[in-house]
Write a sequence for this structure.
């Protein structure tokens, strides 16, 4: 069927994180569906599910919830649509709705991994423990990767390293695992990182390189993050030229990525180039990112601009509270 082949193509684009191209494809399919109401309902269902995925990946949870509910209108007990709707509701701040949808999902599909991942995310947001996860789900790589993402969001780096170590022992070397492990080693601090690696920065460089090669796509969002982490590792290992090359490539790919901006500024700070660091931290992305606002406040303090630093610190506190960040931002402020 030509319509399903087009949907397959859009799905494959989305798997490669080519979100804009996938959305263009789906918008064309949506127009064709509107022009031909005799098309089978499965076409409209697949369109709705894929659009909900796209809006989840684009940080538009309210729109994702609209499309997930459209999918549920066609198939009220579908596990994918229920999981997407639960995740979208959670990201929209509707925790009660998210829980109800996740409960529906695991009740209808008691051994479905996506349903339990959605339920686990709700429990994590509530600060409660999730009971009754079937062994086949709990032991699956998908579920354990989801737990590692949860631990990373709360900056529980030891837990991230434990989970990713187990996944690597099982030879589950997918992009998410490589990213989570290198990011945890880079952020855990010397004492925790040393529990899991004899040479943490060498491993950060190794995992980041493998991640870049595994993805093999400069348009993939993890490529920029891997380049930033590898740049940081090279700087720690005494390779400033290699560090600068990776950072320059990351900046060419996405100059607005917060980690790229932060690392560029820290390199300037390390060189006592406070004016250069401040220039980098004037990027509009900084005004939306608590960690970068705090970094800019440090630069402003160094330059003697106490009033501007104080403004950035209060802004960082407000945004950190709104986004339910860990205590790291308030403590640093």
């Amino acid at each position: 069927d030509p319509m399903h082949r087009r949907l397959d193509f859009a799905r494959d684009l989305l798997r490669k994180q080519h979100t804009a191209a996938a959305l263009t494809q789906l918008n064309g399919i949506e127009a064709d569906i509107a022009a031909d109401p005799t098309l089978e309902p499965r076409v409209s269902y697949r369109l709705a599910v894929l659009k909900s995925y796209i809006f989840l990946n684009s940080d538009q949870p309210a729109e994702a919830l609209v499309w997930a509910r459209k999918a549920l209108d066609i198939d009220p007990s579908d596990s994918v649509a229920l999981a997407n709707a639960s995740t979208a509701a959670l990201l929209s701040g509707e925790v009660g709705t998210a829980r109800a949808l996740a409960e529906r999902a695991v009740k209808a599909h008691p051994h479905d991994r996506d349903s339990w991942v959605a339920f686990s995310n709700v429990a994590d947001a509530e600060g409660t423990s999730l009971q009754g996860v079937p062994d086949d789900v709990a032991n699956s790589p998908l579920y354990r990767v989801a737990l590692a993402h949860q631990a990373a969001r709360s900056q529980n780096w030891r837990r991230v390293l434990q989970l990713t170590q187990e996944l690597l022992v099982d030879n589950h070397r997918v992009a998410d695992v490589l990213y989570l492990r290198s990011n945890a080693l880079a952020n855990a601090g010397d004492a925790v990182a040393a529990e899991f690696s004899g040479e943490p920065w060498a491993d950060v460089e190794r995992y980041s390189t493998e991640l870049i090669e595994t993805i093999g796509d400069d348009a993939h969002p993890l490529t920029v993050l891997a380049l930033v982490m590898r740049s940081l590792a090279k700087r720690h290992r005494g390779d400033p030229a290699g560090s600068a090359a990776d950072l320059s490539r990351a900046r060419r790919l996405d100059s607005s990525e917060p980690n790229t901006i932060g690392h560029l500024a820290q390199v300037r700070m390390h060189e006592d180039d406070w004016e250069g660091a401040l220039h980098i931290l004037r990027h509009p992305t900084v005004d939306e990112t608590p960690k970068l606002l705090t970094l800019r406040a440090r630069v402003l303090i160094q330059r003697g601009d106490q009033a501007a630093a104080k403004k950035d610190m209060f802004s960082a506190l407000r945004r950190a509270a709104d986004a339910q960040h860990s205590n790291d931002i308030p403590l640093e402020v």
Residues 19-35 form the longest helix (17 residues).
